[in-house]
Known about the structure:
By secondary structure, the chain is mainly alpha-helical.
Amino acid sequence: MSLLNEYIQKEQQLKQLQEDLQRLEGDQRLKSELEFKAKLEALMTEFGKRPGDVIALLDPAADQRTAKTTASGNARRKRRLKIYKNPKTGEVIETRGGNHKGLRSWKDQYGDETVESWLERMED
């Protein structure tokens, strides 16, 4: 695309965005929301409150919900510990995943179903 064509396209997009903005500025709902926001911010300033304080006051359960998400972050849930015992050798393998080297060798040697039958217990 030539530079001139790109310029004309951007100019048309700008014109469309300006029309959309003017339409929104005339919308009574937007005016009402902007007025509410301004009054709320003035009230918060007057009483020395932050947005988090207002949310905690209006929705106490929200504080508990955010505490849970921030404490765990985006981390996955920890896998359960599986404990296998080979009845032929008495060897024990504890793993949280299926890629354990020893477990993989058992499954190659004895088969998946046989090794899964050796599952002694699962722990959290």
